[in-house]
Structure formats: structure tokens, C-alpha cells
TrEMBL record, chain A:
Transmembrane parts of this sequence: 12-33, 45-66, 95-116, 123-140, 167-185, 214-235, 255-285, 297-315
Topological relation to the membrane, as annotated: Multi-pass membrane protein
Principal subcellular localization: membrane
Keywords annotated in UniProt: Cell membrane, Membrane, Transmembrane, Transmembrane helix
Protein name: ABC transporter permease
CDD domains reported in the protein's UniProt record: TM_PBP1_transp_AraH_like (cd06579)
InterPro entries named in the record: ABC_transp_permease
Protein's cellular compartments: Cell membrane
From TrEMBL, chain B:
Pfam name, any one: ABC_tran
UniProt keyword Nucleotide-binding present: yes
Gene3D superfamilies with a match to the protein in the record: P-loop containing nucleotide triphosphate hydrolases (3.40.50.300)
GO molecular function ontology, one term from the record: ATP binding
Name of the featured protein: Sugar ABC transporter ATP-binding protein
SMART domains listed in its UniProt record: AAA
Keywords: ATP-binding, Nucleotide-binding, Repeat, Transport
Domain ABC transporter: 10-246, 255-499
Length: 323, 503
């Protein structure tokens, strides 16, 4: 009974925010030396736009990863969602709400399918969601060669481009979704059970948690988040785009953001706030390199290095904790 | 025997259970009254765990009845038993280290207000629960992973109580505790008793059974031998009940005790995280038996000698020369072989062929290019020599019987010409016929000059095979016995009713 063990559990500030602050500080300095300005209106706005799109997906991804699962189909769900949204609206402001409803219903259906594959058929989440993603890819590749449909102008104006000061409405949407997810994780039974299932499925089961139901719900929420990201992208692009999800690497980038944000890839530990930190970090690096006009390939190298470094830091920390 | 016992909380009558045709429980009767601590003792494999799993809903009995709180019950699973009021504290805790005490205690039935988890209420109720068992020092909002083992055990107990457990099963509750923590557990058990909770207390350690229990039931080979009032029982009597079997099977002749071979390996005052002050000698031509209860450090000893979790203190000499065995590879190069206890997880590669399994160690140790054909040929000969029965050398090993798998593992090691062989439960899960084949092989290896160390929980095997027996307890050597020792001698050392040879 050491004194240390009597301290109440503090939820530590994820290290990602320290990394984010450092990155922004260094980036600001380097861009300044280069003769630019990192925090001018247009870079800030575009940074937050990038963060909004990736963030919506990553918050959903956080839920499934916390539960010990994973979703690789999100990129295709995003592409599909842009098309469903744009084609349903077909340029008409009156069809915005039905379109949003339809997107959420379709994506929830895909999430349900993912969840059932993972829980009832016991297919490994990696394989199951990859397979579902490929199914969607087949549909998209077969039906679409390029942009299709037209997003309603009112949605383009509001969600796509409207701002409150330097903050885009889309980023506010991300803040709202993050807050809802945070609330669900800390204040609902679902959240407690999800983290328990990810932490140790056997412990959860023996404590009376209905593991399958919890995981299926998480998968549905994850897909719906991807659907929201699709609606946002459709409002940015003005139409449906059959490859926007995969070209944006939303599947792997969302997982990277979750991991950088301190959520354990095996589940059971972490949260959405850290994920948003991870998203902002990735978006900041993007912004800085764009300002410096760094080669795109080199940018990828740096991103890869950051992801590996983040995971290594967390692994070391876990090791220290175990010792 | 004076006061009439209250209505029992739990009554078991004629409980029987078989696995794959092997009877592990047979006609067991047992009852627990509210506020009673009923201890269940017995050797490894006596059926204690199976019985506890039946009470807590892990298994359903093949025969007999379970009555709980006066009603016949068939628990369909652990949750069913929990809801009825049966809690179980396993040796390995069912807790989430990343979550707080309160989150763990109320996992699965979090208190809710207006549809949301009432975090403050959950903390308050956890604090009350902890206070009611006298654990005011344990903060309800601490992360469980930060807590010590004893505190985690308290959390487990609180978790059971939060579900209104009326019967609590404790399976070797002190196994993971340090000495001063055991005292705390005693206090806790007494407070639970005062609340009228019935306790089934499974333990190897007779001292604590005498300290805590009101009655003791002894199990042996799946049967209830006796149930005694603790006040009337003596340790010697219990040990006699726990063992005392006929030495029925045949064992090969022992080595000549008057003509011991040279010392092949000696360990002096060695220790690591699980072992302390271990000293022993392995001699050529002899089988040294290692006795003791599960968790007493027997496997830790073999793993230390084989370099899996090496000794951190003390000294090991091989044929007179000091050595450091820092990895299994180093141990293999030094001529040591290790046949592991858990054959499925550590002994075989299930989906590879018999031949690949037998070649595993040779391929790992020798350079890839040279002598490949000769080695394969030798392994084939060895497989024939140990009489492996398989459809062919290319059959996947998982389709073989346990005994034949073990022979393949043995052939794997013999291909390296080991001078020292470590066997951990060499005949566990192996049928009787193959057992004696393994026994004969072990003896023949010793006769050919190898030094053998054999860990066994099977007392007749330990007594029948060993030229000397070292008994372990709590990571130390409790004593050494010559050939011809009795089961009582071994058990007495293993459970600690006699003073250690070297204190």
C-alpha cells in the first residue's frame, strides 16, 4: 500500500497536445524564417477544414478501436455517402434533410453489417471491414466514373464554406460530434461497456455486459460518423465523388489519428479528445508543409515517422507502467 | 458439534462430473451455512476447481443436485450464478486495470439517473461498500492498475458484494499475497462472515485453513474423503486423508543409490523473481524428482535452468564450470533439454508435421546448410526408437494422441544429445499405456548417463520414478527426501506442516 497507489486516478492530458503545441510552435518559427506566416486567415481555415473531415471519421474510428475492433471500410463509406447525398439532393435545397437522413441510414446499415460480421460470424475485424470496403469499392467502380449529383447550394454555403470568424461550421460540427462521443463514453452505460469490452472481453462478459450488442452499436456509430464526413465532403466539393474517401486515405489516416491520440490499438484505453488532438497534429503538419511547399512524398515520410514515434512513446509508457 | 447449524445456504448432493470419459468428480456432498467458512482441501487434480466451477455456474454437473438458499438450482452460466448470489474470486482477477475501482465494481450494472451513468452515485456507493468491509483507505476513484494485488482482491470482493453475493468462493486467495497482506485478508474474511455471507475457501495452505475455517472438506481423486470440524482436526490427519493411495502402477528400476554418478549440474543459492535460495545437484544416471504444489516454483525452477527466466542471483555450474544460462538457446548449447508442462502451447507446433516438430530444435541450433540429410535421418531413427505411432512422419502432429506427441517432443530433444533433461509434468494428459512408455524412456535416458530432473504433481509417479525428491514451497526448497519416501512425507513438506530443512 504505497502512498502512490492511494492517489485518485487522473485522466492524464494526452501527450498528443504537447506534441501539437510543439509542432505548431516550431512550424510557426520555420515558416516565419521562410518568410511566410503560418497563422494567417487562409491557412488556419484550411487547416481546420482538413481537420473537420478527418476528425469526423477518426472520432467514429475511436469508438470501434476502444471496443477492440477496427473499421477499414470507412473510406468507401465516405465515397458512397458523398454520392448518396449529392444524388438525393440533386441541387435542390428542399431535399437536404431527406438526403442527410438517407446517408445516415445507409451508413448505419453498413455499420450494422460490419458489426454483425465481427460479432456473430466472428470474422476478424480487419478482414471483415476490409471485405465490406471492397464490396463497396466494387459497387462504386462499376457505377461511377467521376463526380455525380449536385449538392444543394444551401448546404454548400453553410456546411461547406460558412465560417464563424476563422472557424468553419464544419469544424464546429466536429466539436459537437466529439462532445457527444465524449459524453457517451463517460456518462452512458454504453460507453462504460464499450471500454470494458475493449479492455477484456471476458471480464466484460462475466460482468453481465452484452458484448455483441455493444460492439455492433459502436460499428454503426463509426459508419455514421463516416457518413457525416461524406456529407461534409459533398458540401465542399459540390457533388458526389466516388473516390474521395480512398484518395484522402481516410481509412488509414483515421486509425493513425486515433493511435497518435493515445487510444490503445488493442482497445480499452483512450478517448475521443486525444483523437481530435491527433487529427489536429496531422492537419498542422499538412499546413506547415504546404506553407513551406515541401515535396509531397517527403511529407508522407515525415507523417510515417511521426506515427511510428507516437506509438513507440506510448509503448514505452505502457512498459514503465507495467514495471 | 454442539450448536445446531442454521439452514444451509448451499447444499450439494451427489455431484458427479466427467470430461471425455474421465471422472473428475464422483458423488460429492457439501454444504455451507450463512456466516460459515467452509474450507476445501486436496491435492492438485483432486477436483477442487471443477467443484467450484459447478457452484459458480462455469460447469453443469452430470449428476447430483445443487440447492442454493433452499431451492434446487441449475446455473446456466456464471452470470446466472452471480444473479442468484454466488460470487467467485478467482486466482486471476477479473478486473479492468485501466478503469477505476468504482467503474470495475459496478461494471455491467452501473447506477443510472435519467438515462445517464450516475458517476457520483457510483463513487458514493462504492465508498459505502468498501467502508462496510472496513476498507476505508482504498479510494473508489483510483485506477485499478495502480493498486497492489491485495487491494485488487478487495476490489474483486466489493464487486461480488455489489451484486449482493450471499456465497463467496475464494480460490487460493492468498496465493498472490505477501505475508502481511494475508493478515489483511483474514480480517476481511471475518467481516464477511459477520455479515452472514457463506464462504467456500479453497486452499493448499493448511495453516490458513486452520486459522479461518469452521469445517474442512477433503477431496481426493474426485471424491469427498471426509468433512471435519476444524476444531477437531489435526494437520497430520488431513494430510493422510489428502494422500494415502496405493502404489499400484509399475515403475522401472531405480538407479543404484550406492553408486551415484558425477554431478552434471549444480545450483547454489540461486534465485530470481519467483525463486529464492535454491540449491540442488543433478547427477548423471539419476532422476531427481521435484514435488510441490502448483505455484510453488517448480516450473519456475525448470524455466530458470533452461534460461527462459534465468536466475538473477546465485551460481550455476555445469560439470564443474560456472555458466550463465541467459536464453533457451544458451541452455540448449550447454546440453540441456526442456520438455514443457503445457504441451499444446509450448511443446508442439500443432499444424506442422511430426518430422518438422521433431526437427525444430536441431534446425534452430545447427547451421542451416551442413548435415541436413544426416540430421533428418537421425531424427527419423529417433522417432522410430521412441515408438511414435503416426500415419507417417508427414502427418500433422495435432492429430496424434498426447502420448505420441510427447514422444515426438522427446525425439526432438534427443536429437541434440542432451546431457541434462528437464521434464515438467511429462505424463500429464497422457493415457496409462503411453505413460509407462514415457517412464521407461526417462529411466533409459538416465541409465545412458543423462541427468534428469522431473517435475510431477502425480505423487505415485514422483515417488515411483525419483532417485531423490526435492519438494518446493513458496519459491524455495522445503526439503529433500530419499527414494522410498511416502506421499505423506511429500505432502507434509509441500503444505508446510513440518519445519523446513533449512529455515
Amino acid at each position: 500500500m504505497s502512498a502512490l497507489s492511494l492517489l485518485p486516478a487522473r485522466r492524464p492530458v494526452p501527450g498528443v497536445f504537447v506534441a501539437l503545441t510543439l509542432t505548431l510552435a516550431i512550424g510557426w518559427l520555420v515558416v516565419l524564417l521562410d518568410g511566410g506566416q503560418l497563422f494567417n486567415q487562409s491557412t488556419t481555415v484550411s487547416l481546420l477544414h482538413v481537420a473537420a473531415g478527418l476528425g469526423l471519421v477518426a472520432v467514429g474510428q475511436t469508438l470501434v478501436i476502444l471496443g477492440g475492433s477496427l473499421d477499414l471500410s470507412v473510406a468507401y463509406v465516405i465515397s458512397l455517402s458523398t454520392l448518396v447525398a449529392a444524388e438525393t439532393m440533386n441541387g435542390s435545397d428542399g431535399a437536404v434533410l431527406p438526403a442527410i437522413g438517407l446517408v445516415l441510414a445507409v451508413s448505419a446499415g453498413i455499420g450494422l453489417f460490419n458489426g454483425l460480421l465481427v460479432t456473430k460470424l466472428r470474422v476478424n475485424a480487419f478482414i471483415a471491414t476490409l471485405g465490406v470496403g471492397l464490396l463497396l469499392k466494387g459497387y462504386l467502380d462499376n457505377g461511377y466514373d467521376g463526380p455525380a449529383g449536385t449538392t444543394a447550394p444551401s448546404l454548400v454555403q453553410s456546411l461547406g464554406y460558412q465560417r464563424v470568424g476563422p472557424v468553419p461550421v464544419s469544424f464546429l460540427l466536429l466539436v459537437a460530434v466529439t462532445a457527444a462521443a465524449w459524453f457517451a463514453l463517460s456518462r452512458t452505460r454504453f460507453g462504460h461497456h464499450l471500454i470494458a469490452v475493449g479492455g477484456d472481453p471476458e471480464v466484460a462478459r462475466l460482468s453481465g455486459v452484452r458484448n455483441d450488442r455493444v460492439l455492433v452499436t459502436a460499428h454503426m456509430l463509426c459508419s455514421m460518423c463516416a457518413g457525416l464526413a461524406g456529407i461534409y465532403l459533398a458540401s465542399r466539393l459540390g457533388s458526389g465523388a466516388p473516390r474521395v474517401g480512398t484518395e484522402g486515405l481516410y481509412d488509414l489516416e483515421s486509425i493513425a489519428a486515433v493511435v497518435i491520440g493515445g487510444t490503445a490499438l488493442a482497445g480499452g484505453r483512450g478517448g475521443v479528445v486525444g483523437t481530435v488532438g491527433g487529427v489536429l497534429l496531422l492537419a498542422s503538419i499538412d499546413a506547415i508543409f504546404n506553407q513551406l511547399e515541401v515535396d509531397a512524398f517527403f511529407k508522407q515520410v515525415i507523417r510515417g515517422a511521426i506515427i511510428i514515434a507516437a506509438v513507440a512513446v506510448y509503448a514505452r509508457r505502457a512498459m514503465r507502467k507495467a514495471a | 458439534m454442539s450448536d445446531p447449524r442454521p439452514v444451509p445456504l448451499l447444499t450439494l448432493r451427489g455431484i458427479g462430473k466427467s470430461f471425455l470419459g474421465v471422472r473428475v468428480l464422483d458423488g460429492v456432498d457439501l454444504d455451507v451455512a450463512p456466516g460459515e467458512v467452509h474450507a476445501v482441501v486436496g491435492e492438485n487434480g483432486a477436483g477442487k476447481s471443477t467443484l467450484m466451477k459447478i457452484v459458480s455456474g462455469g460447469y453443469t454437473p452430470d449428476e447430483g443436485t445443487v440447492e442454493f438458499a433452499g431451492e434446487p438450482r441449475t446455473f446456466r452460466g456464471p452470470r446466472d450464478a452471480q444473479r442468484a448470489g454466488v460470487g467467485i474470486i478467482h486466482q486471476e482477477f477479473n478486473l479492468l486495470p485501466e478503469r477505476t475501482v468504482a467503474e470495475n465494481v459496478y461494471l455491467g450494472h452501473e447506477p443510472v439517473r435519467r438515462g445517464l451513468v450516475d458517476r457520483r452515485g457510483m463513487l458514493d456507493r462504492t465508498r459505502q461498500l468498501l467502508a462496510s468491509i472496513g476498507e476505508t483507505a482504498l479510494p473508489a476513484d483510483a485506477r485499478v492498475g495502480q493498486l497492489g494485488v491485495a487491494q485488487q482482491q478487495v476490489v474483486e470482493i466489493a464487486k461480488a458484494l455489489a451484486l449482493d453475493a450471499r456465497l463467496l468462493i475464494m480460490d487460493e486467495p492468498t496465493a498472490a499475497l505477501a505475508d502481511h497482506e494475508v493478515e489483511l485478508l483474514y480480517g476481511l474474511v471475518r467481516r464477511l462472515q459477520e455479515r452472514g455471507i457463506g464462504l467456500l475457501y479453497v486452499s493448499h495452505r493448511l495453516a490458513e485453513v486452520f486459522d479461518l475455517s469452521g469445517r474442512i472438506t477433503v477431496l481426493k481423486d474426485g471424491r469427498r474423503v471426509t468433512t471435519v470440524d476444524t476444531a477437531d482436526a489435526t494437520a497430520d490427519e488431513l494430510v493422510r486423508h489428502m494422500v494415502g493411495r496405493e502404489l499400484s502402477s509399475y515403475y522401472p528400476d531405480r538407479a543404484d543409490a550406492d553408486d551415484p554418478g558425477p554431478v552434471r549440474l549444480s545450483v547454489r543459492d540461486a534465485g530470481n523473481r519467483k525463486l529464492r535460495g535454491v540449491s540442488l545437484e543433478l547427477r548423471a544416471g539419476q532422476v531427481l524428482g521435484i514435488g510441490g504444489l502448483q505455484g510453488s516454483g517448480r516450473s519456475a525452477l525448470a524455466r530458470a535452468l533452461f534460461g527462459v527466466s534465468p536466475f538473477s542471483t546465485g551460481e550455476v555450474t555445469l560439470a564443474g564450470k560456472p555458466v550463465r544460462l541467459r536464453s533457451p538457446r544458451a541452455a540448449m548449447r550447454a546440453g540441456i533439454a526442456y520438455v514443457t508442462e503445457d504441451r499444446k502451447a509450448e511443446g508442439i507446433v500443432p499444424r506442422q508435421s511430426v518430422l518438422d516438430n521433431a526437427l525444430l530444435a536441431s534446425r534452430a541450433v545447427f547451421a542451416a546448410r551442413s548435415g541436413h540429410a544426416a540430421r533428418t535421418e537421425r531424427v527419423r531413427e529417433l522417432l522410430a526408437a521412441v515408438e511414435v505411432r503416426a500415419a507417417g512422419d508427414d502427418q500433422e502432429i495435432r492429430f496424434l494422441s498426447g502420448g505420441n506427441q510427447q514422444k515426438v517432443v522427446l525425439a526432438r530433444w534427443l536429437a541434440l544429445n542432451p546431457r541434462i533433461l528437464l521434464f515438467d509434468e511429462p505424463t500429464r494428459g497422457i493415457d496409462v499405456g503411453a505413460k509407462s512408455a514415457i517412464h521407461n524412456l526417462i529411466r533409459r535416458l538416465a541409465q545412458d548417463g543423462a541427468a534428469v530432473l522431473m517435475i510431477s504433481s502425480d505423487l505415485p509417479e514422483l515417488l515411483g520414478m525419483s532417485d531423490r525428491i526435492v519438494v518446493m514451497r513458496d519459491g524455495r526448497i522445503a526439503g529433500e527426501l530419499p527414494a522410498g519416501a511416502t506421499e505423506e512425507d511429500v505432502m507434509a513438506l509441500a503444505v508446510g506442516t513440518v519445519r523446513e530443512a533449512a529455515a
